[in-house]
Amino acid sequence: MSKVILITGASSGFGALAVRALALNGHTVYAGMRDTTTRNARAVVEAAAWAEDHRSDLRTIEMDVQSQASVDRAVSTVVAIHGRVDVLVHNAGHMSLGPAEAFTPEQFAELYDINVISTQRVNRAVLPQMRRQRRGLVIWVSSSSARGGTPPYLAPYFAAKAAMDSLAVSYAGELARWGIETNILVPGAFTKGTNHFAHAGRPADLATVLAYEQGPDKGMAEVAEAGLAKLEPPDADARLVADALARVVEMPYGQRPFRTHVDPASDGCEVVNGVADRVRAELLRRIGLEDILRPHPYGQPGAL
After folding, report:
1. Distance between CA 32 and CA 63 in Å, rounded?
2. Residues near 7 by Cβ (< 8 Å), separated by ≥ 6?
């Protein structure tokens, strides 16, 4: 059955790949992105051309996840046209690269705003509609850095992704009785196929950057980046993430996994998440809330 799907941060990277994979499966897909008439105008044109060539229902929509007004307008537009939002994908994010000390507090706040607080803006716009529907799917694009092996010089991004992952876990339980399902998609480090590293934010405190570059940590960033690249198998492709997301959407309601890992480098996140998620499930059973481990169709507890 065709679904109405909204994806944030879909101008490039995993988002751009995912909207195309979903549209090819016959869904109506809205690729949310900011600056559709300026910086991302080319992405809008390319998406329209792709949609026409593939006879797919892929649409771009202006959506700046750092602006509640912009988010509200985008979601209201989708609901006005279709009367529903079946799937929401939290994909918008931004990476940073450099010694943690050299980032100003304002830069940390900016990273958290893009990677974490933005999801709250979008949820507050979309979830009222999903709760009215008593059905929906929310997919959070997390990162293996939230719990896997964490190389240095990526601290602000790693911390923000860990916070977003934690938020996703809490939301999953609170939405289950409303019939809203959750999947946390966990990509590993893909050094090719996206612009994450090329477009990564850099520290503003250049004096501190220089101190690290000339001190005992000299060359650490280069070693870390080269090491990650070596761990990545030759056949690792960012499209694996988009394909995994598309498979989750196609799964039957109530049978989707809580997490989906796509980590060719095997940095250990899947092992740690497996333990953490089992501990969460056991606690919920012990306190009498086992039912929120799965969504309930039409919001009826125990209907599964």
Report:
1. 5
2. 15, 18, 19, 22, 29, 30, 31, 32, 89, 91
Q: Which structure tokens are listed for 162?
A: 């860990």
pTM for the model: 0.92
* pLDDT tens digits along 24-41: 999 999 999 999 999 999
Dihedral of CA 128/131/133/139: which sign? positive
For residue 117, give the H/E element and its range: none
Rounded to whole angstroms, the Cα distance separating 166 from 172 reads: 10
CA angle (295 as vertex; 173, 179 as ends), nearest 5: 100
pLDDT in tens, 30-87: 999 999 999 999 999 999 999 999 999 999 999 999 999 999 999 999 999 999 999 9
Q: How far apart are CA 71 and CA 124, in angstroms?
A: 9
Among candidates 190, 227, 200, which has minimal Cα distance to 97? Answer: 200
- DSSP state for residue 113 in the 8-state scheme: I
8 touches 63 (CB < 8 A): yes
CB contact at 8 A, 26 and 59: no
In DSSP notation, 27-57 reads: -EEEEEES-TTTTTHHHHHHHHHHHHHHT--
Query: Quick one: how far is CA 38 from the chain centroid?
Result: 24
Residue from 81, 60, 254 nearest 176 by CA: 254
Catalytic residues: 157
CB 119, CB 90: distance < 8 Å: yes
Q: Identify the CA nearest to 111 among candidates 64, 69, 165, 163.
A: 163
Residue 2 CA: distances (Å) to CA of 25, 27, 48, 83, 205? 8, 5, 19, 14, 49
Q: Can you tell me which residue has the tokens 């609901």?
A: 79
Q: Residue 288's closest CA among 276, 299, 301, 298?
A: 301
